[in-house]
Design a protein that fits this description.
The protein is of the alpha/beta class and 406 residues long. The protein contains 17 helices and 13 strands. The longest helix is centred in the N-terminal third of the chain and has 26 residues, at 112-137.
């Protein structure tokens, strides 16, 4: 694999030496030089073109934001990355608005620099490859479709479906796909896909009023399939940790960047969950064929139906369908709705996939489970539907009922 050529722009401090040492000790990185001024940085980029330029927040009395913008404008093929102390999110925002494609924080954690540089550079190369043909083919902005995976009961396979459906959509449509883990307490999407990032959905929610696509892109984790992932917080947050309406703002930004956005929700009907259900173009309502899950699903649908809310965008997905479970006609009669799809049960294979961190649609594409998910993805890519105006009132109506009973 070709090494990533790195130029470090920073004052001669112990911090810079730590960065230089980390680069020189990494087999995937190559240090092409250091610079302590804007003139040196511009000359180095011109004379020994790097792949990545690390620009530190402080550089004597030089305006590093202006330098970042200058580098990004003159040399768009070079990936400019801001370097700052942990917690300096205001500077990060300004740097990314100036043209930085990502950021790293100091002091460095072992192995972190290499991981971040590889991820951002890979994402930037992919972006550059796509920009020209996409811009020529379609002048208008992307308006992505949001798919929410929901169940009022935990443990039914929402995260597994989210991960595999996202990869399946990317494989079938060759479109840009983003996955969002909207669980403030026990999000597992990163584990299922074996991806890691230094940032999560929470980092974006705290800056929801100032979001820009560049900032969002810099906080996504990249999966080998090309799918981008916005992870859940690494630590357990309060159930109400996601401020109302902020998730909607993040999803709106993602819609301008991706063709498909698949959101993994959690069972609790928090403001954040309701925001997702309202915003989504389609909701896959999942259940497993047992009596407790069927009851919970019926209660959820009864609640929505009691509000005279059109249920067009809710589709029933039965996971772990097996001969020992409730029959399809029983489920349909109880819910008074048709089952859109059944995903067969194969616990050993699914467990193996989860533990390996490799989606089934990649590792066991011929398995019945994978075929069902690929069929679901194909159905989405060959003909979707737009939500009605009435469907947009879900969150308001449900909040009113929940507040009344709470």
């Amino acid at each position: 694999m070709k090494k990533i050529r790195v130029l470090v722009v920073a004052d001669a401090t112990p911090m810079r030496q730590d960065v230089v040492d980390a680069i020189e000790q990494d087999v995937d990185l190559e240090l092409v030089g250091t610079a302590v001024s804007a003139a040196q940085a511009l000359a180095a980029v011109r004379d020994v073109p790097p792949d990545v330029v690390l620009v530190n927040e402080t550089l004597g009395d030089i305006n590093t934001l202006a330098l970042t913008e200058d580098l990004a404008t003159r040399y768009p093929e070079v990936t400019v990355i801001a370097m700052t102390q942990e917690g300096h999110m205001d500077y990060v925002r300004e740097a990314m608005l100036a043209g930085a494609r990502g950021f790293v924080t100091t002091p460095l954690v072992d192995g972190e620099l290499s991981q971040v540089l590889r991820q951002i550079r890979r994402l930037e190369l992919s972006r550059q490859t796509r920009l020209a043909p996409v811009a020529a083919e379609n002048q208008k902005a992307v308006e992505g479709t949001i798919i929410a995976i929901y169940s009022p009961k935990g443990g039914v396979g929402k995260t597994t479906l989210t991960a595999n459906l996202g990869v399946a959509l990317a494989k079938q449509s060759h479109a840009r796909v983003a996955l969002v883990d909207n669980n403030p307490q026990f999000g597992h999407l990163g584990l299922v896909l074996n991806v890691h990032a230094n940032y999560s959905l929470m980092d974006l929610l705290t800056r929801a009023d100032d979001l820009e696509p560049e900032m969002v892109e810099g906080m996504l984790a990249s999966h080998s399939s090309g799918v981008q992932v916005l992870l859940a917080p690494g630590e357990i947050e309060r159930a109400d940790a996601f401020p109302p309406q902020t998730v909607t703002k993040v999803l709106a930004i993602l819609q301008t960047m991706f063709n498909w956005i698949v959101v993994d929700t959690w069972p609790v009907l928090t403001e954040s969950t309701l925001d997702v259900l309202e915003t989504a173009d389609q909701v896959f309502l999942m259940l497993v064929p047992d009596i407790t899950c069927l009851r919970d699903t019926k209660q959820f649908l009864d609640l929505v139906e009691s509000l005279n809310f059109p249920l067009n965008k809710f589709e029933i997905i039965v996971n772990r369908a097996t001969e020992g479970g409730l029959e399809r006609d029983v489920i349909e009669e109880t819910l008074r709705r048709k089952v859109a799809m059944e995903i067969p049960q194969d616990d050993p294979l699914v467990t193996h996939s989860l533990n390996k961190g490799v989606p089934l649609v990649i590792s066991h594409k011929r398995s019945p489970v994978s075929k069902a998910i690929m069929q679901l993805a194909e159905r989405l890519t060959t003909g979707g539907k737009e939500p009605t105006i009435e469907e947009r009132g879900l969150r308001t109506r449900m909040k009113r009922v929940l507040n009344a009973v709470g």
